[in-house]
Amino acid sequence: MSNDTSYTAAGTGAFGDYAEATRRSVARSTLNGLMTWLGETGLAAARESAGLQAVIDQHAAAVRDALGDPERGPGAVPLAGYATGVRDALIEAQWQLPPTADIDWSSVEWPALRLIAICSLARAGGYV
User: Fold this and answer.
1) Taking all residues of the chain, what is their mean pLDDT, rounded to a whole number?
2) 111 CB contacts (<8 Å, ≥6 apart)?
3) Taking the C-alpha atoms of 47, 54, 37 and 27 in order, what is their torsion angle to the nearest 10 degrees?
4) For residue 9, how many other CB atoms are within 10 A of its CB?
5) Angle value at C-alpha 34, between 31 and 39, nearest 5 degrees
6) What sections of the chain are H helices per DSSP?
7) Is the pTM of this model over 0.70?
8) Hey, how many other C-beta atoms are within 10 angstroms of the C-beta on 62?
9) What is the sign, positive or negative, of the torsion defined by CA atoms of 44, 46, 47, 48?
10) What is d(CA 117, CA 128) in angstroms, rounded to the nearest whole number?
11) How much is the average pLDDT of 5-19?
């Protein structure tokens, strides 16, 4: 049996690159889906309301802090993971967002604000 690890190292490197590219692709897909579902409408509403924009900015700052990079903002993979965690918690709690056309943007619930903030960060990071 050979003790040569070059094959394993090369295979792991190529696999690692492929796996990372796949993670980034899945993350962008997740963030694009969130943007289509809620983000576009929520961010458009925020452009019309300074108060709503301020609340979304506060949520975005909390997400940046939670993901450990308050200066530059989170990468696509951690951001999509955070979004998925929020979504899963909301499903478990049986929380449902009304259709975006029916949302009263003057009194948006916390979960929607957090998800819109994730969309804001995704747009700022160039992931959507």
Assistant:
1) 88
2) 86, 90, 95, 97
3) 120
4) 10
5) 110
6) 6-34, 40-48, 50-66, 76-92, 110-124
7) yes
8) 13
9) positive
10) 13
11) 57
